[in-house]
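Sharing a chain and its predicted structure for anyone who wants a worked example. Both blocks are below, sequence first, tokens second.
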Amino acid sequence: MMIKHDETAVAGLTGVIWTLFNHSLTAAALGRLVWHLRQVNKGERRFFEPSALGMEFSGVLFGYIAGLGLAAIIGLDGDGARGLVLIVSYLSPDGCQAILNRYLQGRKG
């Protein structure tokens, strides 16, 4: 007995997967995940750490909101905006502040 699959269901599932990966919030979550995995590999935190959940959630939201805002100011959309969201999310508020401080110090001197 052969198992028949519904091609529309497969196409629908594929569409859902591409929609998830084509969203800026997913890019923000991936940026924070990469940063978290880097911290785990360096031995600075454990992978499953309950206290880190709140920090990572706020980092994802920051990356999403600030990244899309910056992308709108620069005039990026689509993949460029998602890439910027991923970078801002990876950097977190502290990393963005450090870059901004360095940039402003260079403009003063």
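Comments welcome. The chain has one domain: 23-108.
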